[in-house]
C-alpha cells in the first residue's frame, strides 16, 4: 500500500466495512467505515487524504484519529487497532 492510499476491507469482528490507510508519513491506520451520523459508508479521497461521507457531507481526518472536520457527524470514526509485523510487513487487526 503506497502512502496516501487506502484499501477497503470488512472488519471480521463486526462485519462492518472498514478502511486501511497508509498516511503520507508511512504509518498505517484503520477505521470502521460506517459514518457516525446515519450509517452510510465513508470513502477515501486520495488527493485530500480525507475520509468523506457521500450521504450528508461529513469529513473525517485519518491523520488525527478520524476526527470530524465538517458535517453532521457527532463523533470520529471508530479506530481499529492494528499490528504490523516488522519483519514481513504483514498488517493484521489486533485481537
Structural overview:
- It is a single chain.
- It contains no helices and nine strands.
- The mean pLDDT is 95.
- It has 95 residues and is mainly β.
- The radius of gyration is 13 Å and the shape is globular.
- Strand 5 (50-52) and strand 6 (59-61) form a beta hairpin.
Strand order of the largest sheet: 4-5-6-7
For the sheet with most strands, the description reads:
4 strands, antiparallel
Give the number of helices: 0
Overall 3D geometry? Answer: globular
Helix content: under 10%
Structural class: mainly beta
Q: How far do the termini sit from each other? A: 22 Å
Q: Please give the radius of gyration in angstroms.
A: 13 Å
The arrangement of helices and strands along the chain is EEEEEEEEE
Average pLDDT figure: 95
Count every beta strand, where a strand is a DSSP E run of 2 or more residues.
9
- Low-confidence blocks of residues: none
What fraction of the residues are assigned to beta strands by DSSP? 35-45%
Strand and helix layout:
Layout: E1 5-10, E2 17-22, E3 28-32, E4 43-45, E5 50-52, E6 59-61, E7 67-70, E8 82-84, E9 91-93
Antiparallel strand pairs: 1-2, 2-3, 4-5, 5-6, 6-7, 8-9
Short description:
The chain has no helices and 9 strands. It has 95 residues and is an all-beta fold.
Features:
single chain, about 100 residues, mainly beta, 4-stranded antiparallel β-sheet, 3-stranded antiparallel β-sheet, 9 strands, about 40% strand
Amino acid at each position: 500500500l503506497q502512502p496516501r492510499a487506502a484499501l477497503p476491507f470488512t472488519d471480521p469482528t463486526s462485519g462492518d466495512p472498514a478502511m486501511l490507510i497508509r498516511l503520507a508519513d508511512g504509518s498505517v491506520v484503520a477505521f470502521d467505515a460506517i459514518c457516525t451520523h446515519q450509517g452510510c459508508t465513508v470513502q477515501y479521497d486520495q488527493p485530500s487524504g480525507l475520509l468523506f461521507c457521500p450521504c450528508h457531507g461529513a469529513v473525517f481526518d485519518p491523520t488525527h484519529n478520524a476526527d470530524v472536520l465538517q458535517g453532521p457527524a457527532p463523533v470520529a470514526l471508530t479506530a481499529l487497532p492494528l499490528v504490523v509485523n516488522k519483519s514481513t510487513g504483514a498488517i493484521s487487526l489486533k485481537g
